[in-house]
Amino acid sequence: MVLEVKKISKNFGGIQALTDVSFSIEQGEVIGLIGPNGAGKTTMFNMITAMFPPSSGEIIFMGKSLSGLKPHEITKLGICRTFQNIRLFSDLTVRENVMVGNHCRLTTGVWQSVFRTKHQKQEEKKVLEKADEILEIVGLLEHSQTIAKNLSYGQQRRLEIARALASDPKLLLLDEPAAGMNEKETNDLFDLITKIKSLGITVLLIEHDMPLVMRICSRLVVLNFGEKIAEGTPDSIQTNKEVIEAYLGVE
Ligand code: ATP
């Protein structure tokens, strides 16, 4: 088991964002976390990545409790995420954005003088090579020197994923990666998630694009008003009465 979420609750003042939510993810799965706006999906990501502590419950990652850990310790253990809104360094190049994801000091522009010793030069080369490997995976290698803000919207979203991949995650949390994408960009995203899965990385996906979710996920967890209302294969979820009423809508 990669991740075990055990009876997680979170309340913000008077708002109960999550109530006793439990689910688990096995190695290599792509799991969808779905539900209407305000259901608690992003809050669950914030619990897993320790942006906020849960009010109660526990999360176990690869057999280790995440209780009390700081966000950077969670990243180090192998959990990385993207955010609903694009958070790139828009004035840095595509490659530099990925290098930042690798928690490395930049080697170009104003940062060049930081790398002085031979050892540092070797480290720099490794980080550059790693960044380019990742850019190749996400299909942005030819844009490595492009300033991030000059990429198309779909490319910027892929760069966000590249940056998360730079920390070598075992579990990747994607928060609405298809939001605002056109059909071609969504198809490219499908191919990219498939590729990430083939690399052995487990994926937890928040997404409102149901055709994409149904195509890519082997299992779905459905939240509504902070509670888990269903869990199962895409087929079983699509025909689940409670999910249809709460989220998918009646045809
Ligand atoms: P969406 O699909 O719109 O992104 P979501 O399922 O991700 O929705 P959350 O963002 O997790 O939902 O929000 C769940 C509830 O918790 C909402 O009522 C939200 O207002 C509340 N909430 C989330 N974060 C905070 C916070 N930091 N402080 C106060 N309330 C919060």
TrEMBL record:
<keyword id="KW-0813">Transport</keyword>
<dbReference type="InterPro" id="IPR017871">
    <property type="entry name" value="ABC_transporter-like_CS"/>
</dbReference>
<dbReference type="Pfam" id="PF00005">
    <property type="entry name" value="ABC_tran"/>
</dbReference>
<keyword id="KW-0547">Nucleotide-binding</keyword>
<feature type="domain" description="ABC transporter">
    <location>
        <begin position="3"/>
        <end position="250"/>
    </location>
</feature>
<dbReference type="GO" id="GO:0005524">
    <property type="term" value="F:ATP binding"/>
</dbReference>
<dbReference type="InterPro" id="IPR051120">
    <property type="entry name" value="ABC_AA/LPS_Transport"/>
</dbReference>
<dbReference type="InterPro" id="IPR003439">
    <property type="entry name" value="ABC_transporter-like_ATP-bd"/>
</dbReference>
<dbReference type="Pfam" id="PF12399">
    <property type="entry name" value="BCA_ABC_TP_C"/>
</dbReference>
<dbReference type="InterPro" id="IPR003593">
    <property type="entry name" value="AAA+_ATPase"/>
</dbReference>
<protein>
    <submittedName>
        <fullName>ABC transporter ATP-binding protein</fullName>
    </submittedName>
</protein>
<dbReference type="InterPro" id="IPR027417">
    <property type="entry name" value="P-loop_NTPase"/>
</dbReference>
<dbReference type="InterPro" id="IPR032823">
    <property type="entry name" value="BCA_ABC_TP_C"/>
</dbReference>
<keyword id="KW-0067">ATP-binding</keyword>
